[in-house]
Amino acid sequence: MTHVHDSDSSLFDHVTEQRLRRVLWAFYARATQDEQLGPVFEQIGPFPRGGWPVHIARLEGFWRAVTGGPSAYRGQPGPAHSGLGIGPAHFDRWLTLWEETLREELPATEADVLLRLARRMRPNLERFARASKDI
Length: 135
Ligand code: HEM
Known about the structure:
This protein is mainly alpha-helical. 61% of the residues lie in helices and 0% in strands. The protein is globular. The two termini are 22 Å apart. It holds the Pfam family Bac_globin.
């Protein structure tokens, strides 16, 4: 997993576990209510119940790893996006909601870095999204 800081303090230290968690719950509250993105997340169950606590915990592990925090995340984000029937418009919307949430929940510097990280992941995830489920 790529880390963004080489210094003693990681981005995770700045964001903090508590705020990262708040960002994730706030983001998926929006995403699941969104006209365009909501239907794609229905497989996880009714937010914030169903599979959501487990899914958010996985995502927290992912973002902890990406921001240089302690993490046991061993998932594969790419394949998770194959076969969902999503395309560029979904990614545009996802990133818009991500930015809105980050701006509300975090100081500008941390919000900027988390936005930049997600934007950088997009091309790879979008490539998987174009592939069918069994590739
Ligand atoms: C740059 C943008 C995105 C990032 C950084 C991102 C990140 C992630 C991560 C880390 C996971 C967990 C993978 C795992 O289980 O280990 C995931 C799963 C998932 N993402 Fe995304 N995602 C993005 C865009 C999208 C978009 C546009 C959609 C469409 C609504 C979407 C829908 C989903 C769904 C439905 C899952 C669960 C898949 C499953 O468990 O079967 N994601 N995403």
